[in-house]
Amino acid sequence: MEQSFLAYLRGRCRSLPQVELGIGDDAAVLAASPHPRIVCTDQVIDGVDFLSAQHDLVDVGYKAMAINLSDIAAMGGQAESALVTLALPKKNATKIAGEVYEGILQAASEFQIAIAGGDLSTYRGRDVANTGDSDESRHNTESPLAISITLIGSLPDGPAWKRSGAQVGDAVLVSGHVGGSILGRHLRPTPRLELSRRLRELADVHAAIDISDGLSLDLDRLCAASGVGIELDIDAIPIHQDALRLAQQSGRTPFEHAWSDGEDFELIVSVSEADASKIAAIDLGVPLTRIGTMVGRTGLWKRVDSKFERLAPQGHSHL
Amino acid sequence: MEQSFLAYLRGRCRSLPQVELGIGDDAAVLAASPHPRIVCTDQVIDGVDFLSAQHDLVDVGYKAMAINLSDIAAMGGQAESALVTLALPKKNATKIAGEVYEGILQAASEFQIAIAGGDLSTYRGRDVANTGDSDESRHNTESPLAISITLIGSLPDGPAWKRSGAQVGDAVLVSGHVGGSILGRHLRPTPRLELSRRLRELADVHAAIDISDGLSLDLDRLCAASGVGIELDIDAIPIHQDALRLAQQSGRTPFEHAWSDGEDFELIVSVSEADASKIAAIDLGVPLTRIGTMVGRTGLWKRVDSKFERLAPQGHSHL
């Protein structure tokens, strides 16, 4: 399958100037750039990150790209090219690969990403058959579809937005609305690359992270990395309509969903008061809501009357 | 597991100047380079590319790095940093990850590669748990260990060594000795990065490929990509002692093993007669043997008396 599928892919992948030599050789060549490179990788696995019985594999392919694009956006970088690795169940391998790639190519087209290369393997296939196949009994033929994508981009002038750069007194902003992504948004998130690019022009972002595992959990990670805490304006947290809809089914409150649901893929950024004011005056196409202020006392806090009350981060940790 | 394992990894990974920001943020930052970047990715999967019941996982980790390093060498590039993605069986996930990383770090240390980042998932874990885990019955808990590595390097001045650049009249050279790697060499191949670097200084390499799927199969791929054929000097093919040893068990000839066994990870290069003579006069630390001459008639050929006889490529195709 690999040779004919690669021929199909070469036909589908647009030539973009960032890739000098793409699919078909032992490695790809990316055009020289005067900027530092920014790179990330994230995998999605059937039964862990999605359910093939339930989710459209075109959406799953799109999501695998989008979550990586979101990571680049959260660092203040620009995404340019991708390497795509698929581990495919033997049954319907070509059909599955085609559907997944359809979604990958949709995201690539939308964000001008070149597919520079990748790898395809089929479980129990003969990727390198001289290791033998005498071990038939050990693995289920239902070994899960796994999609691993590496994104490579560049970092414009100025530093990367680390998690560790937040300063006491910073205003903390969150993009869009959060909670309830499980109702469908999690499959087609909008990576905030354009917002990231605009923010980089406008402001000196001290720290940033994208919300993959829950607003409060990722906010807590950012605070912990920076050695600060946050005094939250709880009522300001922008709750997504999906969180309201989900609350009607779940028995939890819309706030709880906004606080702890994962896969919003919105950005949290920490900027100076002055930059926050500057940003607030400009239409960036996506709402940016101030949800709190960084304080010296570590942890997540809300003020109740004149006292601070500690809030527990909740969300979905990896592994 | 991920947080504590990442902390362990950060401690084990050496700081190298090519990585400005490594493990721990949403993406890594690689130092700017004036050269084009060269990138490749290859995965190895239990039951397909190795057998965990039989092979030491430290070796498997080393191999996962080495096969990617070999791809960079085959393009005439220099390897600099790696992103490592592991999909882990739930049982003994931390132990398995530790063993695999041990081999990865050995290769990284040997070839001065920085581990810039990666991803860890455990099958049926809760990488992103809001997709639920209601689908318990679909996948075997024995889902196989999969290791996917992306290598990023740079391409010194001059073009990449494509498969398609061989010219009629070129001398074709192969490094080292081939055949019988299954006896153990396939787990600890020596990527020919140093040889590649020396060849780049000495000669204008027209085309190159590394032997992953068998001497004759990869040679055929190089010829096909270049639109040429090769007249082979069959007796010159450097047969590895392992091919002789394997022939005693297999009932096949040592030549057959040299011709079709995969995973030698030696280089095949196509250079002008003049460059071949220049190279032959210099000790490169690894033998480079001339095995034939490129001809206009496509395919693999040997001369028997005054006639050409066509040879069939054999090896292990992917998928």
Structure write-up:
Two copies of one chain form a homodimer. In chain A, α2 crosses α3 and α6 crosses α7. Chain A is α+β, with helices and mostly antiparallel strands and 319 residues long. Chain A contains eight helices and 13 strands. A seven-stranded mixed sheet of chain A has the order 8-10-7-11-9-12-13. Chain A is globular and about 70 Å long. Chain A folds into two domains: 153 residues, PurM-like, N-terminal domain (60s Ribosomal Protein L30, Chain: A, 2-Layer Sandwich), CATH 3.30.1330.10; 149 residues, PurM-like C-terminal domain (Phosphoribosyl-aminoimidazole Synthetase, Chain A, domain 2, Alpha-Beta Complex). The two termini of chain A are 33 Å apart. The longest helix of chain A has 18 residues. In chain A, β4, α3 and β5 form a beta-alpha-beta unit. β2 of chain A pairs antiparallel with β3 of chain B.
